[in-house]
Each structure stands twice: as C-alpha cells, then as structure tokens.
Amino acid sequence: MDNNLYKVENNLRSIAKRHKSVKYSIGLAILFLMLGTSAFSEDMMTNEQIASSKENLRNSIGSLQSKINQAKVENEKELTGLRLELIQLMEQGDQVVKSPWASWHFGANYMYSKWNGTYKGKGDKIEKYPFEGVFERDTNLFNRYMPTTSENYGLLSKSNNPRSAASNSRTNLDSYGIASNITVLEPPVETEVNAGINPKNVNKVPLNINAKAANAVTLPDTVKFSPISPEKLEIDTPVINIKDITLVNLWNWYTPPGSQYPYDHGNKTISSGYTYNLNTDYSPGSGITGYNKVKTFSSSEVLKTSQGIDYQKVPNFNTPTGGMEDYTYGAIFEFLAGEYTIDGLTLEVDEAKDRNGNIIHGTRAISTDAYGNLKVHNKSNIKLSADGAVGFATDEDPGSASDLHQMTNEKEGLIYGTGKRNAAFILVKEQPDPKPTYEHINKGKIIMDGDESYAFAFSKTTGINHDMFISHNINDGEIVMAGKDSYGFAFGKDRDYKVADSYINNGLNGSISMLGDNSMAIVTQSDMSYANNEGTINIAGNKSYGMYMDSSTKMENKGIINITDYKKSFTSNNAGGKWLNNKEYSRSNAEDSIGIASGKAGSTITNNGDINVTTGKNNIGAYTKIGTVVNNKNIRVTNGQNIGMYVAGTGTGNNTTNGKVKVNSNGSIGLMTAGTGTITNNGEVNVTGGNNSSNTRGTIGLSVGEGSTIDSTNGKVTTDVKEDKSIGVYSNGTLKLGESTIAASNQAVNYFADDKGKIEIVAGKTSKATTGQSSLLFYTKGSGKIILGGQLNATIKGGTTPSKRGTAFYYISPTRYGAFNTAGIQNYFNNTFGNGTSTLNHLALNMEQGSRLFVASNVGMNLSDTSATSLMSGINNAPTITGSNYKTFMLYLSKLTINQAVDLNDANSNYARLEIANSSIDNANNMTGSQNRQVAMAQENGNDTTGAGYESKEVTLTNKATGIINLIGEETTGIYAKRGRITNAGKISVGKKSTGIYLVEDDRSPAAATVGATATNDASGVITVGENSTGIYYKVKNDNADGKGTNIGVSGGISNDGRIESTAKDVIAMSFDSPYSSKTVKNEQTGIIDLQGQNSTGIFATGTGTYTATNDGKIKLASSTNINTPNIGMYTDKSTITLESDGTIEGGDKTVGMYGYGINLKTNAITKVGTGGTGVYSKGGNVTINSGTLSVGENGSTGSNDAVGMYYVGAGGTITNNAANVKIGNSAYGFVVQNEKGAAVTLKTNTPNITLRNDAVYTYSNNRAGSITNTTVLNSTGNGNYGIYGAGTVTNNGNMNFGTGIGNVGIYSILGGTATNNSMITIGASDAANEKFSIGMAAGYKSSDSGNIINSSTGIINVTGKDSIGMYATGPSSTATNKGRINLSGEYSIGMYLDNGATGINEGTITTVGSPKGAKGVVLSNNSKLINKAGAKININSAEGFGIYRVNSEETNITIANYGDITVSGGAKKIGVFDPTGGKELEKTAGGVTLKSPKGTNDINITINGKPVPNIEKVTDPVGHRGDALISSLGMYVDTLRGTNPINGLSNLNVKKAELLYGVEAAQNSTSKYFEVSGKILKPYQDAVKNAPGIKWSHNSASFTWMALPTVDSNGVPVKVGMAKIPYTEFAGNEATPVDKKDTYNFLDGLEQRYGVEAVGSREKELFNKLNGIGNNEAILFYQATDEMMGHQYANVQQRINATGNILDKEFDYLRSEWQTASKDSNKVKTFGIRGEYKTDTAGVIDYKYNAYGVAYVHENEDIKLGRSIGWYAGIVHNTFKFKDIGKSKEEQLQGKVGLLKSVPFDHNNSLNWTITGDIFVGYNKMHRKYLVVDDIFNAKARYYTYGIGVKNQLTKSFRLSEDFSLSPYVALNLEYGRVSKIREKSGEIKLEVKHNDYFSVSPEIGAELAFRHFINRKTLRVGLGVAYENELGRVANGKNKARVAHTNADWFNIRGEKEDRRGNVKFDLNLGLDNQRYGVTANVGYDTKGENLRGGLGLRVIF
User: How far apart are CA 70 and CA 57, in angstroms?
Assistant: First the structure.
C-alpha cells in the first residue's frame, strides 16, 4: 500500500511539471484520490468550490476524530471499571485461597510525641503559680522573722520579686496555689527598759566617689611608618667536641679469651635455648685445665657485663697478667669470623669493677675482630647503662681487601643508652694497614638518653696508612639522641679514611631525632666521599644542627630536615623489666638551631630535599658564615620566628632556579645577609606574615645588612607582610630586585631603604606592589635610596578613616614648618628616588578610593589652603597616577592654622577632609557641631624612627581668645592632645558625656625635655560642660612597652585661670590622674569653678603620685539632693595627694568642700557648706586649718542637718584648728573624728570663740587612743548641744556657757576615755519628761559603754536649770570625780548622778547656791557606788531635797562610803529612796490560745478557749551552742535551744522601738506545742536588754505559726517567755478553693492533728520543724507548703489510667489494620514503646511526661469471605509518669487488658465493614508523691488498683479510587468504665487517703483515611493519610476525687480536677509502610490539635 501511494505521488509530480497550470500540492493528491482523472478536466471545480470541499472534508474528518476520542474515553472507563472489578475479584480469590495454617508476625515500634502547646483547661495556672520552685529566702536572717505588723517592717526594702520568700519583696504577690490561706497576726506586746541619758549618735557615711572617665576621641592615629631595622643575627661557630671513647682491651689471640661468649667460626643464630660451649664455639681448649664455659641462653634473663669472670678466681689459671687479660668484662659477645644472629636476647653493658673496686670503662655488648668475612646481626635488646659503654665495637685489622666486616642492628634490634658518652656503633683503630671494608648499619632503634653520646662513632686513625681505611655507615632505622652534646654520625677530626670509598648515609627509611642542645645529626670534620641525608632528620634542641660541614666531604640533604617539636613514646620488650614502658620523649620550641650549614671556606653544602622550620625562634634553614650553601629544592618556615636562608661573614648563598624559600610565619625572614655575605636568588622566595605575638619583631621578606648583598635580578620574590614591625624588603646594603610582588598591610612597609642602603628594581624587569590599609609604599632613612630602573606597578589601598589609609610617599620639609608645594616634592623625588634625577617615571600608581599619596611632615598650612589639588602638576619624571577620591596628603609633625569657620557637621568642609596627625593647631574662629562623638581639635604626639617620643611642643593646640568651640552632641571633646600643650583663651562648650579639654601624658618625652603635657584654661577662657562631663581631664598613660617611656620627671599638668561652669549633673571640672610628683593641678587665683548640677566635683585628683592639688580661686557648688552622691569641691582617693586651698569653696546643702587625706586650709581659705554638708572630709594624714573661715550648716534646721565642719576617719593624724572663725549650724558638728580602734588622732581647737545654736556638737571623737584639747570658748543659744563628745583623753581649757537652752551637755566621755575640765561649765534647764537633760559632764552609755570624767580643782560646774545634772556617770566601768566645785541653783537639780554600776568620787564641793527646791547632792541607782572622801562636802539647802538619793530596790546593790561631810538644811534630808518602775500585765490571744502574764507575778498562763493547756515544756538550759547571737539594727533574735556568746552590738540599734523575736528552736527537740523558756538559756539576752535601757521592745515569736509572751521584772527585763503554737486551722481561709470553702480547713485540721504524733528525729517531725521555722515575713512559704501537701498529684488519676489503656488500644488497632495477615490463622505479637507528655493551664493539675513500654498480641481467625473474622487480643503495658512538680513526683502504672473482636463485612468486597471489640482490664499502680516544704523534699508512697470494661464499635466504608488508591471514611464509638480503689499512702510524711472513685468514657470519633498501596515485585508500599475528629463526652479528666490526712479524724477535702475536654481533638496521621513476605518497616507521624501535639514513630516486623 505504501509503495502504491508513493507511485501515485511521483506520477502527480510528473504531470505538474509538464503542465504549467498545474501545481503539485497535498490537496491535489487528495483530489486525485477522490475524483480520479476528472481532477484535471476542464470543468474542474472553482477555487471557491475547492475551498468549500476542503472545509467539508475537514469537518467530516474532525467529527470522525471526535467520535473516535469519545469512544476511546468511554472504553477506557469501562476498562478501568473492569480492571477494578478484576482486582477486587482477585483479592476475594486471594482471601479464599489464603493459607489456613497459622502465621506469626513479630515486631517492635517506638513512638514519641511532643506537646508544643498546653491543654486549654481552666486557665488559671500562671495566675495561681507565678513561680514554682524553692523560694529565695532573705540572706538577712533577722529580716525573715520581722513581723509584718511591726512599725519597723516599713524599713525593709520593697520589691515585687516572685521568687522571693520575703513578704516585703513580694508586693502584690501575697498568695500561692489553690489552697485558701490567711495570715494570723500575732498581737504585739511592748515593754521598755528604764533609760538614763540618750546621747547623739554620729555616723557619717564614708564617701566613695569614682573618677569619671574621659571620653574616647576619634582622631587620625600618629603615623606609624617607623619600622625597626632588623637585628643582625649573630651565629656563633659551633663548638664540635667529638670525644674519643677508649675501649677496654680485648684478648682473643690466646686462651682463655677476654670476652664472656666469644665465637671463632660458623654461621649461627644465638637465641633463647641455644647452649654456648666455649670449647666448641671458640676454641677446643680454654687455656685453663678443667675449665669450660657452658651456658644455655634464655629470653627471660639479662646477660650483663658485670656477670663476667675474674680468671684469677678460677682454679688452674696459671697465666695471670694483672691486667684486663685476667677478666671477661670487655664484651658480652665477641665474633671473629662467620655470620651470626643474636635473636631475642637481652644484653646490658652495666658497670663492672676489677678486683680492686675500680670501674672498668670502655666495655661493649658486641665486639668483632675478624680475620675474614664477618657479619653480625642484632635482633636483641642492648642496654648501655654504664658510662662510656658501646653497643657494637668493630676493631679493624689487616685482613684482605675482599673481606667485608658488616655489623647490623636489625629491625628487631634495640640499642638503648642511659649512660654518658655511650656509642651504638664505633669503628676502632687497631692495625696500620686495614684492607677490609667495614660497614655499620642500623635498621632498628637506637635511643640514647645520656649526654655526649653517639649513634655512629669513629675513633681517631693516628698511625693508620693514608687513604686506606674504608667505612660505610648507614642508618635505615630510627635514632633518637636525647642528651646534649650528642651526635648521630660523628665523623671528627684526625680521621684518615679512603675518601673515594667511605661514606655516611641516612637512608630513605632512616630517621635521626636530635632532642638535646648543642647536638648534630651529621657532622664531618674529616674527608670522605660523601655524607648525605636521604631520610628524615628532626632537630628539637637548641643550638643544634641537622647537617654541618667542616671538611671537604660532599654533603647533601636529599631527604627531609625538620626543625620541629618532637613527641613520641617507645616501649621495649626486653627481659628483666621493661626499660622503655611507653616512655615519652619530647622537646619543643627549639632556638638557634640550623638545618644545614657550611663551616669551612671553599666548602659547599647543598639542599636537594626539604628543610622545614616549624617551631621556636632564630632557627635557620640554611646558613653559612664562611663557606657556601646552595638550595636546589625547598626551604619552608611555617611557624616561630625563624629565617629561611642566612649568609653572614664572607659566606655565599645561592637559591638556584629550582630553589624555593617559602616563609609563612610571623616574625620570620625569608633571605637575610650580613657582613659582606652575598645571596644570589635565581629561584623563588615567598614570604608572608606579620608581627610576632609580643609585637617586638615583624616579618621581612628580604633583609640586607650593611655591606652585604642580595641579588634577585633573575629570581622571583613574593612577599605579603603585615603590621608595623614588618617590611616587604629591607636594605642597608645592596638589594637588586627582578621580578617581584611586594605586598604590605596593617602598618607594614613595602620598601625600606635604610641610611646606607639601596633598593634597585633592575632595568628590564617589572615588579608589582600592593600597599594595604595603614601601610606605606616607600620609606627611606638618611641617605637611603630606592632606584626604579625597571617598571613598578603599585596599588595603594584606601580606608574610610585616616588611620586605615594606605600611603605612597613620606615627605619631610627640609625647613621648620616649610611650605608643602611642587618645588619641595620635585627635590624629594630627585634625591630619594634617583641620583639627582627622579626615576619615578617607571612607577605606575593606582590610587584606590580612600588612599593617600603623601604624608607631609614639618610643613605649615592655613586651613583655607588645604584644598589645593595641584601639588603634582609640573613634576618632572613624575609617577603615573590613576584613580580618584584619594587623599593627596596628611599633615604630620606640622602646623595648621584654622583661619575660617568650621562646621564639624559638614563632611565636605576643608577641615573634615583634612588629615592631620602629630601636629599643632591654632584656632581663632568658630568651630561648631551637633553630632555625637565629635572632636574639635585632637592630636597625639608620636615617636621618631628610633621609638623615642617627640617633645610636647610638637603638638600645641590653642583656642585663641576669639576662638569658639561649641559641641552640643554627646560624647564630644573640645580639645584633645597626648603629650601636647593645650591652651584655651576662648570658649569651649560641650554636651553630655563629654570633655572640654582632654590631655594625656605618656612619659615618652625625650630626655632633654623639661616640659611635658600641659593644659591651661586662660583667664579669658570659659569651659561649659554638660551632664556626666569633664571640664579639663588629665591622665598619665605610661607607654613603656619598648622601654622608652621613662621620662617621668618633666613638668606638666593642668591649670584653670578662667572659668569652668555647668548646670548639669555628674560633672567634674578638673580631673587629674598622675603617678608622679612632677605634675600639678591648680585652680588659680582668677579661676572660677561653678557647678550647679548634682553629683559634681570641682577638682578630682587621683593616681599614685605624691603631689598637691591646689585651689587658689573659687569653687561654687549647688546643694546636693543625695548625701551619698554629693557635690564636692576638691576630691582625692589617694593618701599621697594633699588637697590645699587658699581660696573659696562654697557649697550648698549636702555638699563636701574637700574630701581626701592630708588637707591644708591656708590663711585666705573660706570653706562653707550647707545643711547636711561636710566642710573637710579626711581619711588620714594631717589636717591643718591655719586661719580663714569654716562654716558648716548655718542654714540647717534642728534635727535634720548632720553637717560637719571637719570629718576625720583616718588614723594617727593631727588636726590643728586655728581658724579665725568657725560657724556651726543647728544639728551640725564642728569637728568629728570617727576611728574607734585606730592609731591616736590628735585634735587641737584654738578658735577664740564659737556659739552653738541647737542640737550641735563642737568636737566629737570615738578614737580611743586619741586626744582632744580645747581652748575655744563655747557658747550656747539653743537646746541639745554638746561641747566636747569624745573618747580617749579630753582636756577642756575653755569656758562653756551653756546656761541658755535645754538639754545641753558640756563634756561627754565615751569608750573608756577620760575627760578633764579645767575651766567653767554652766548649764541651764532640762526637759525631764522627754529625757532631755542638761549635764555639765557625762560619762558612759547605759551599761554598754563607759567613760571617766574629772572636774579638776580649777573646774567649776554651775547647774542653773531645773532637773539638770552637774556630773553623770553610767556603766560599771564609769567614774565621775569632782575635785572642784559643783554649784546647784536650779530646782530639782542634781550634783552627781550615778547609774548602772558607776562609781562617783567627791573630793571637792557639791553645794546648793541659794535654796532651790528638790535639789539632790548625789543620786545612786542600779548597783552604783559613791565615795565621799574626807574633806569633801555635800551641802544641800533645799525643800524636798536630799544629800543622797538612792533607788529602793534590793536588787540594785547601792554602795555609799562617806568619809566627808554631808550637811542638809531647808527641809532637805541626808538620804532618800525612790521606786523607778512598776509591774505591768501582758496578754496576747490567737486561735483560741491565750498567753497571759498576770501583774505582780513572773508566771505565764497558757490556755485554750479558757482552759489551761497540759504539757507545758520548760526550757532552762541550753542544748549546744550557736556562737554569736543574731542581732540586727532593728532588734535581737532569741535562740530558745542553744547557748550564745555574750551579746554586744545593741548600740547599733537605730530605731526607737526594737524587735525582740523569740525563735522556736525549743520545738525541734520536743513534740509539745507549748513552752516556757527561762534560766540560763535566756540570761545572755537578759543581760543585753539590761545594757540597752531606754529602748522599747516589741515581743513576738519569730515563727509565722507561733506566738510568744514574756513576763518582765521591775526594770522591764524579760524573766520568762511563754510560747504556744497557733493551730494550723487558724490559717485556713474562707474561699471556695480548691473546690469547697472547707477544703483547706479540713486539710489543715488533719495537719494539726498530726503535729506531735511522730517522735523527735522522724522525717515527719522534721517536716513540722520546717513549718515552725517559717518566719513572720515568710507567709508565702506556709502557703506553698499547704498547697504542696494537698495531693494535687491525684487530681487527674482517672485520666492517666484511661490514657494508659488507650496506649494498648492503639497498639491492638495497629496490629489489626496496619499488619496484613499472611494466613487465615494469624498471630501478631509486638513490643512497643512510647514517650509523651501532658501540659495544661489548669491550676492544681500537674504537667507530666510519660514513658510506656509493653507487649501486645492479636489473634485473628479469618473466614473465606473477605473482611469477616473473629479473634481475641491481650496486652500489658508499664507506664511511668514523671510529674513536673517541684519534688519530681513519679507514678508507675502496670495495666493488662484482654478482649474479643469481631469483624463483619456487608458485601463481598468488604467495602462496608463493622468491627466490634470488647475487653476488660486490671491495673496495679504505685504513686511516689514528693512535695516541697520550705526548702526540703518530703515523700509519701501509695499502691492502688484499677479495673474496668470497654466496648468499641467502628463502621467503615471504603471507596476504591484506583488500583492503588482508596478512601475510607469511618465512624466510631468507644465506651469504657473504670474503677479506682481507695488510695492509702502507707509510708512517708503527712500521708493522705484518697476515696475510691470511678470514671466513664464516651468517645465518639469520625474520620477518613486516604490509602495508597502499590506492589513492587514482591514488596508492598503502603501510604496512609488520615484525619479524624474525636471528643470525650464522659467524665474522665475531672475525677472529683476527695482526700484527707491519714490517721486523723479530719474531714475529706476535695482535690481539684481537670476541666473535661468538650472541644475535642482533631488528629492527623501519615503512615508509611514497606514490607515483603518476611520483613516490614513502618513510619508514622501525626499531629493533634489538643496540646499542639506532634507525634512520630518507627516500627519493624518479621513474618514467619
């Protein structure tokens, strides 16, 4: 058919060709086929007809195609349906024919689920539990116990820290958990101990003011292009000291022999078990009649030299010589001819002695003396422990030229030396004409520990015929030389060998490691053919060599030489204990060592291998000083500070065309020459690196020393160096560069031509250079030149800051501040880069953006001229420059005049674009800026090229009178200089955190300089600063890292002649920090410092220097708002600094005039401070007030001033007050010395006259060793003043006129001091009701302090006011002595008052003046004593008066000794008595418990609801000892169990009403709830209270759950204390929580019933001890403990049981649905594990994690009908719940389940299926409840049972979507009922009972699964994607459980349950499975909306 159509087509084409009117087309062909030949007839159709026909034909064909397609689709549908039907039929058939016998499936899977959210329960967990954990208790124990009802509670600091246990730190956080608690407040009870006098307490807080740091400034760094010249490395010629080893004589030419085991002939292996026989192995006759040596060798013994024989001890030895012929110590083995192998033996050449005890030196292990061919192989262990011992010794002999004497230490052999001067091999001269060839070969190990040792040694050849001795020396093993002065191959002097045939070779497998100092691996000092290294040489010691040539021997390195760190361990297998037991050999950081070196003129040593330098310092790859070194291959430096190749002296070096020197290590050098040495580089040199770690040495590519040469014309040099000590190429000689690439960065220099050096880039060559950031292309010094004969292409890198810019040229003006112009540049180019004509026309410069062309030094410019851009125009032979946006120049060591206004905000201004460093600047214009961190003028003075600093005048910064600097941004600086001179005559204003003038001294001024860094604010200068800013800042920052910062004697410093002002806070006007006396800080006479802000300081002086900070001007300070952060006029924190003022310091309230140590107020000084201020505060040294005025607190009001004129806290100083005027305000102090135990402080006051107003103290001192001498007349115009208040020795020589005012005290002696009055004291009235007594002289404080007062014979005390006292003494050590006169004229006045054991002595007169009413001569109270001496007089003329007036109490023990006269008149009595106190009834009640102390008794009654309580436990004697008592500034704590030390410190009480808190320690040792404490345990506290009279005490229990009540004596001192526990039920609130109002009460009722049940020492008793220990201020701890104990772990127990059962249900379902059945009788068994968690936001329901594992079994019998089956299943699961509570509780559930199943299909394809299952379960569970009480975890354990029944129904409809896909929607209903037995906690503390309960679950579910199943050969791939919704309609989560405290009759309390889940859960599952007929794997992931739970698991199964 195809052929016919083809023919038709050809015929038609032929017709068309013949007829022009016919054109061939496909259409024509179709017409012909349809019409035949009529297609060509005349009546052929028209074109339109043809077109119409075509369209009809097309439609017809299209219609046909459409019908065909439609039929195809319908057919495919029918085929698909038929295919699915066929598949389903096949599946039904498979079910019919499925095997009837049993199949077994075994598998395992593990699931993990993670909740990323929480169950939305009741939503109150965060609210109820803001913090769950152990609360942080107050570290101040006293604060724990502070009652919240106390007046002092408000003094505790407040915060809202949820972690704190203290109530004061839990503002608005007063509840915890879901228990209902309230606080039971203990009623307060107060008592007071009777008081006497209450003195003022002086305690000025020491000030500690930190220096304010000046602000860092941003400025161009000083130019650092001053690289050091490289040090010329001096290499000493090595001292080669090859010492001869003299061997002991061996005698083998006669018998008996001189060795132990000689062999004369044969080829033998000598090993373990070999028996040696002298007669057969050596000679038939031993030479001794009857003597033969027979020895069987063993691998377990050591053959030692010392085991040799002294023949003279052998019978029949008849030929003694007295020499070594008589011994066999010479060698262990000796061989004369043959071939021998010593295998597996152990030999030791130890110390041997002759019969006279002399050590025999020169012994050896193996000796040879052959007369024919001889080979000896050592496969044994040889130890050389004796000095001078040898392993192999070869004696040469005449022999034959064909003989070979070969000694080999085989691979198994070890030669180990520990002695000094050992040798492994030695060739020994013996005969003059040696003909054989001698070979020493090492293939094993040679390890030498001793010094001066050798691996291969050669003895001198003196006497041997010339050029005859042939020696081959080969190492193919491992040699380690650990000692110093050691050698691998030591071919020394005077060795005459046959040169052509002798050699040394370290073979390919050989390694030599030299670990000792001064050692060499290979050295030749005599000639031989060659000495080569083909293996490895490791050099790890100092001053050691790999290969050293000192002869004409050809020496090559063909292998590897490493100068490296070494570390390796060795183990030997010798007998007699391992010599080497993993012994480590290590050495590191070699120095001054060399790889190869030539040490002989004319000799050449060549490197044809690799030399690697990887450690240490000053190590060299190749070196010579006299010969020639050639590198043909590689020299590498990769670590340390080392050199690749170094030629010094007259040596020459050649890096050939194949040679490569590569250096990549900081501080290293590639090639280096010195002397007249020359290196020719025809190869490659590659150097990279920077500074070493100490920044003392940089990396240098090529270094040419003076007079030496490096010629690299035909070589290639590549360097890449960085940092300021590094140089690409350096020359102080001649350096020629051909092809090169030189890179420098980070302050390095590319090319450095020193003074005598020249660098030439040779003609015809092209070089490249890259100058990186902060680096310099060309640097020359002196006459140094850089000649560009060839082309140099250089790129200069840019930077965004001046310090980062790369620079091409460094220009220096020849005249001081000369012009920087074209002419100067041309001259520089001609002479530095040429010999009169510039060669820079060969330089192409690529200037990148931000780079710099010039650094211009020593030039002067106006700011307006700095924009010039034509500096390079017109230069002859100028370089070719490309690039843009580069900087033309930086000014350096130059001067800039700012002659135009400067806007620092303008980045394009001339000033902003200018770069200037180390220069001077003058400003006479406005400089303004508003941005942060701006700097107006800033310069740092740097160093010259030697590192010496420039003089400070090189940086002079001046703001002239018309100059204005105004910076309003933060962290700005007006003027900054380092080692410069700053002058401000204009105005400087800076903002916040800023500095006006900032000056740094670095001590680098040159030695000739006399002036260092200075800054002056001139008289016209004004500096205004903002917050946290400094006016003038000065600091010494010593820069002596290089030893050149040592000029500390130059003068310098800062001064203010103008004005420094501020209204901001945290300001320092002048800050000065200096360690030297040569620097000064001064506010001059015209200087004004005006600080009106807060926390500001006028002059701040610090540092370690000894100097004086001076104020001659005026310092004004605003009032301070905080006494701890005051404004201060002058301040120092260093004792070596003296503050001096001859000017005015005037401060407001709470300010400090001067603060420091030594202080001097001069004649014109005026120091004035306001309320709360301190005029002078000294921490030590001497304080002198020469004259002037001291004014303190004149504006103060009474009681709120606390100002002090002079406050001294130092030791040992002298205070001299000669002030012309001292003014003291109300409640202020004149002079205060506060240093109780320090060295004596002397205070002298000489001001003529001073008036005190109210509540003031003129002088105060607590310095026990000090003294006060007063000559000032003191007057009073108000109340409450003290004249002198002091410890130590007080002498008053001035009158005190205190007759005006109430409560004034003339002299008060404290702290055991003695005060004497030699003048007149007059006092006025008292206010007795408020205990404000006027007293002439007073001593002591109650019973806690003492003093001594003396009214001398010239002293007069006038008591003119009512109730006032002449002399008052209190305390058992206090005394009052009257030798003068006490005049009583006021009503009820007292001459002498003695209290608390004080003693009064009257030697003078106490008398009334007139007849005042109620006057008393002497009053005695509380154990006091009066001695009225003979001649003394007490004269009282007074109605109601008494001569002596005493207390009436018998306890007070008053003593009166009267030897003088007591006269009374006017109605007075000689003696009277009084009762100071009266009894008082005390009572408190809480919770029905009452404590009562009836009036007039010392009893305490304890009742409950009015009935006396039984079992009141009495505590009297301490048990144990607590040490010091707990005392606070707020009160005292009483330990009711343990004893305590005597109590001191109640003088620190700073409250009017103090707390006396009684601890409940007594309850620790008892189960009682009631105590009475008295006796010894209370006595220390009673004594303390007695010694603190005048204090009101608030009595409370320290415990939150107890109360306490004292009974007190007549003095108010506690006698007994009753204590009772408040019932816990009182702490129950009335809220319906956890569930009901009574819940918390019922629990606390049970808790109360348990109190005291368990014995002391039990854990439950410890729990109650914890509750008892909760302090009053720790209520939250009780609330937490209550909540913790209430058993929240049982809240959702039913939910957990149900969840455990669900785990089994899921596994049963998985076995049925996911594991296909292989037969109709199917058995499926799997083990499983699952880990998951539960989180909820319901308070009281604890989150937990669970971990379950178990086994599940399903048995299923299938019918022939698909989907129909019955079966049964069983399983067991163990589930562990770990609660996330504080105690980490745990529950274990073990549950078993068994059930039946039935599956019913409703069609043949099982597309509709109903499955029903029913099961029962039982469970055994264990709960371990752990809960926190205060800070300890307590336990309770229970076991309980569960059981239940469940029914599950599921209806599934499956839709077959395709051969592989199906969709199965389903509905299910699961029902379960469970029962929980009663839970009884059997062990633990506060055990609970939980009522038995049940639950029921109704869980409907609806979902669908899209499944994919595909068969691949015999494998089945399954994929399932499911989604379902489930809901719980039953009662599972909210179990409504009830509990009560076990073993009590308390009622049940509810346990709050979880909120039932009625919102349901949407779950998604993706299951993957792959199985064949035997194995299967599954993986599944899932997601639950409940808890945002993400699940995942893996499974495996096997089918049998």
Answer: 20
